[in-house]
């Protein structure tokens, strides 16, 4: 499959786009990435390819949209619970931060229990659930800073899984530096008037 066969409509800080990049790298598939301006004006290609949600990622194959990633149907818990819990910590202020932090840690503990003693969620092989979950790890630092806790102290097995996953070339190449994500969150909070 040539690079021209796959086009990814992308946004650099989106954990959902990171998943697609990791999955494509794990499969050894080349692709072209087109960065979308989600704040300034979405491209006609994005609006045409995903008219209902108008969100990234969109993976286009031979000019035909594949549709939403298969990860979304199986990874409902991660998409709905983990993403929201992660963001709620840094979107909160005052006493609400403690409530958000507690909820976030509960979600992490559920994932840690699912991981158990395994190397990866699927066992010894990095797979589907790992690809769905690992992009969120780049956002954890921001939640830790605003929530005044560490994932490592609260969920050591999950923290070890993050470190193992980060050793994979496909993951290390895609996930942004957590401090850069934190800087993005600080900027986003200012844009939203959250102080």
TrEMBL record:
<dbReference type="InterPro" id="IPR036249">
    <property type="entry name" value="Thioredoxin-like_sf"/>
</dbReference>
<keyword id="KW-0808">Transferase</keyword>
<comment type="function">
    <text>Is involved in the conjugation of reduced glutathione to a wide number of exogenous and endogenous hydrophobic electrophiles.</text>
</comment>
<comment type="similarity">
    <text>Belongs to the GST superfamily.</text>
</comment>
<dbReference type="Pfam" id="PF02798">
    <property type="entry name" value="GST_N"/>
</dbReference>
<dbReference type="InterPro" id="IPR004045">
    <property type="entry name" value="Glutathione_S-Trfase_N"/>
</dbReference>
<dbReference type="InterPro" id="IPR045073">
    <property type="entry name" value="Omega/Tau-like"/>
</dbReference>
<feature type="domain" description="GST C-terminal">
    <location>
        <begin position="64"/>
        <end position="184"/>
    </location>
</feature>
<protein>
    <recommendedName>
        <fullName>Glutathione S-transferase</fullName>
        <ecNumber>2.5.1.18</ecNumber>
    </recommendedName>
</protein>
<dbReference type="GO" id="GO:0004364">
    <property type="term" value="F:glutathione transferase activity"/>
</dbReference>
<dbReference type="InterPro" id="IPR045074">
    <property type="entry name" value="GST_C_Tau"/>
</dbReference>
<dbReference type="GO" id="GO:0005829">
    <property type="term" value="C:cytosol"/>
</dbReference>
<feature type="domain" description="GST N-terminal">
    <location>
        <begin position="4"/>
        <end position="86"/>
    </location>
</feature>
<dbReference type="InterPro" id="IPR036282">
    <property type="entry name" value="Glutathione-S-Trfase_C_sf"/>
</dbReference>
<dbReference type="GO" id="GO:0006749">
    <property type="term" value="P:glutathione metabolic process"/>
</dbReference>
<dbReference type="InterPro" id="IPR010987">
    <property type="entry name" value="Glutathione-S-Trfase_C-like"/>
</dbReference>
<dbReference type="Pfam" id="PF13410">
    <property type="entry name" value="GST_C_2"/>
</dbReference>
<keyword id="KW-0963">Cytoplasm</keyword>
């Amino acid at each position: 499959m040539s690079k021209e066969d796959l086009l990814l409509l992308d946004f650099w800080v989106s954990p959902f786009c990171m998943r697609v990049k990791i999955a494509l790298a794990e499969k050894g598939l080349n692709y072209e990435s087109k960065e979308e301006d989600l704040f300034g004006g979405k491209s006609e290609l994005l609006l045409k390819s995903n008219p209902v949600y108008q969100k990234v990622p969109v993976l286009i194959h031979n000019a035909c949209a594949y549709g939403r990633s298969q990860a979304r149907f199986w990874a409902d818990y991660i998409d709905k619970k983990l993403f929201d819990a992660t963001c709620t910590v840094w979107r909160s202020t005052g006493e609400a931060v403690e409530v958000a932090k507690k909820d976030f840690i509960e979600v992490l503990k559920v994932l840690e229990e699912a991981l158990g003693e395994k190397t990866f969620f699927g066992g010894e092989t990095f797979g589907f659930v790992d690809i769905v979950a690992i992009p969120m790890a780049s956002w954890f630092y921001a939640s830790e800073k605003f929530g005044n806790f560490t994932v490592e102290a609260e969920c050591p097995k999950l923290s070890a899984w993050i470190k193992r996953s980060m050793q994979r070339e496909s993951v290390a190449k895609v996930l942004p530096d957590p401090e850069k994500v934190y800087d993005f969150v600080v900027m986003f909070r200012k844009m939203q008037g959250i102080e």
